[in-house]
Design goal:
Blueprint: H1 2-20, E1 25-26, H2 39-54, H3 58-61, E2 62-64, E3 74-76, H4 82-94, E4 99-104, H5 112-123, H6 126-140, E5 142-150, E6 165-172, E7 176-181, E8 186-197, E9 200-211, E10 214-225, E11 241-244, H7 246-249, E12 256-259, E13 267-271, H8 293-312, E14 317-320, E15 327-328, E16 335-336, E17 346-349, E18 360-361, H9 368-386, E19 393-396, E20 400-403, H10 413-442, E21 446-447, E22 450-451, H11 452-456, E23 461-466, H12 474-486, H13 492-498, H14 504-516, H15 522-530, H16 542-555
Parallel strand pairs: 14-17
Antiparallel strand pairs: 1-11, 2-3, 4-23, 5-6, 5-13, 7-8, 8-9, 9-10, 10-11, 10-12, 14-18, 15-16, 19-20, 21-22
Helix pairs in contact: 4-6, 8-9, 13-14
């Protein structure tokens, strides 16, 4: 009873303070207690990278362009949108929906836990949404995926039985701030979400925090007035405003939810494979173009000059001003001109002497080749700075910005860049899969009649495999593995794991099935038996074992 009264008083104080302006107003999230002082990194890093990714950054792209009529006239620079292009290209090479997720539980035939995880990923649009999220993370330096349990409610707010499911959220770097971390991963953090309603911005902070073995998720809401800002400048919704009662905006959210039995955080933060040379003490990553800002600006300047070359270099014919005077037709009384006044090619110039009374073509030769060479030179520099092989991006006068689409060599810079980013993403996916399984266990979800918690108690192994067929010829890769195994330089198990993407349990199961079909020698069978794998020979006939040993001796 006392706690309920306390909460009501607290809610009234927050609402009154927000409406009257008497309570404290927070300018940004970094003024809230418990948030590290990363404001400089966000304002002079993440937010600038975001504006460039969106295609317009005021201090760069709104320039002074004085005219005779207005000495303070401004105009917007023509832009190539290169940041978006390079992030999109790299994300496509990293992901392109060519990713397999394996959740293995020993050698059991039906992998129920894997089926459940795949169902959750599919219902959340993971396979298509992930490429978009990777693209945004490359632009802003990192991103986070969070998992939570959600249940549908009827019109009265009551939970509908049987509708509970695991949901996934994809957050950009400006929507997440880490609050605790170790050398390998971020463990605690706060997620930022905003919505506009009735002339106000409502900002919800969702805190994820460990306290010993207990995992807490807490929520709080802030309200600020909607204010318009100039394009490319600081967004007004970055201002938190005043604390506001949670139940006024989100009536079904708990202010604080403790969870027991978890072994991993319910989110996974991953960063770009680029060393943070802006803030050495920060766990945050930097944009792939963080160290190429001057090149990006130069590209936009060159492209703007290229576009304006056609506008300013249009055909102009100088005519004496006397030639454009209007005269009255003595017959009709109408004013007549000596040429079409609406023709943009003509420019009038006042002249005194009779020698100047002649028409002159004053057209300027367009510098197409010079601009094309300049843009390609800066694109070559950009490829070096962001980790692409030379020539990945080129500019052509006919087709604009082009990218190389041929198969990428293992020794190329692009290939190495892709693999380093994939390593970061693999770890994040594996972590979020663990979170999915633990949430399902915590809330008693089932799959095909089996309790997920009971299945999880058997243990599981997660393996994320990227299909390198975009990067290299898959058949060549397989042939290389066959050559190594045939000559005894690689085990068949390792071939299945490294070349075909099997987990170790799946590889051993596959080898056992091949053995049962008579396609594996007795030597490999003996090796599996010594490794502790139970042989599954039909009828367990000793004679069959002896024949295999004789075959192995003949092969040796």
């Amino acid at each position: 009873m006392f706690q309920e009264i306390k909460e009501r008083v607290k809610s009234w104080v927050q609402k009154t303070g927000a409406e009257t302006g008497l309570s404290k107003e927070f300018k940004d999230i970094f003024e809230v207690g418990g948030v590290p002082a990363f404001n400089q990194f966000y304002y002079f890093g993440v937010f600038i990278w975001k504006y460039l990714y969106k295609g317009f950054y005021g201090p760069w792209h709104r320039i002074l362009a004085p005219t005779i009529a207005n000495s303070k006239n401004q105009r917007d620079l023509e832009r190539m949108d290169t940041p978006k292009a390079i992030c999109s290209e790299l994300a496509g090479l990293i992901w392109s929906e060519q990713c397999d997720v394996h959740v293995s539980q020993g050698e059991s035939g039906e992998q129920l836990l894997e089926e459940f995880v795949h169902d959750v990923l599919t219902k959340n649009g993971f396979w298509t949404k992930m490429q978009e999220h990777i693209e945004q993370s490359l632009a802003l330096g990192g991103g986070a995926i969070k998992a939570w349990y959600e249940v549908k409610r009827d019109g009265k707010g009551n939970e509908i039985p049987g509708t509970g499911m695991v949901r996934l959220g994809f957050c950009m770097a400006d929507q997440f701030v880490p609050t605790a971390w170790d050398n390998s991963q971020v463990t605690d953090g706060v997620f930022i979400s905003r919505e506009a309603k009735d002339g106000y911005y409502y900002t919800r902070l969702e805190w994820h925090k460990w306290d010993g073995l207990t995992y807490y998720i807490s929520n709080e809401v802030f309200r600020s007035e909607y204010k318009k800002t100039n394009p490319g400048m600081a967004e007004s919704q970055d201002i938190l405003g005043f604390r506001y009662p949670l139940d006024e905006v989100y009536p079904f959210l708990n202010a604080n939810t403790p969870m027991q039995g978890l072994t991993t955080s319910l989110f996974a933060y991953y960063r770009t494979a680029v060393a943070n040379n802006i803030d050495d003490n920060s766990p945050l990553g930097v944009s792939i173009y963080a160290n190429a800002l001057s090149t990006l600006k130069a590209l936009d300047i060159c492209y703007d000059s290229f576009i304006r070359e056609f506008r300013l270099g249009k055909k102009r014919i100088i005519v004496p001003s006397q030639c454009i005077r209007t005269v009255l037709d003595p017959v009709t009384g109408e004013a007549r001109r000596f040429f079409d006044a609406n023709d943009e090619a003509y420019e009038a110039l006042f002249t005194d002497g009779p020698d100047a009374l002649k028409v002159q073509d004053n057209s300027v030769e367009l510098r197409i080749d010079e601009h094309e060479r300049a843009i390609n030179a800066f694109l070559s520099i950009l490829c070096l700075q962001v980790g692409f092989s030379a020539g990945t991006f080129t500019f052509d006068r006919a087709t604009g910005l082009k990218t190389a689409t041929e198969v990428i060599s293992e020794n190329s810079k692009t290939y190495k860049t892709i693999k380093s980013h994939q390593l970061q993403i693999k770890m994040a996916i594996a972590k979020i899969i663990d979170a999915i399984i633990q949430i399902a266990s915590l809330y008693g979800l089932k799959w095909k009649g089996y309790n997920i918690g009971a299945l999880a108690q058997q243990g599981w192994e997660t393996k994320v495999v990227f299909d390198d067929s975009i990067l290299q010829d898959r058949q060549t890769n397989i042939n290389e593995g066959i050559l190594l195994t045939t000559n005894g330089l690689m085990s068949k198990k390792r071939f299945l794991v490294e070349k075909l993407g099997y987990t170790e349990a799946e590889a051993l199961q596959e080898l056992q099935e091949i053995k049962n079909e008579g396609g594996v020698s007795g030597g490999l069978y003996d090796w599996m038996e010594q490794a502790g794998q139970e042989p599954a020979s039909p009828n367990n006939e000793p004679q069959a074992r002896e024949e295999d040993e004789e075959d192995a001796e003949d092969e040796s």
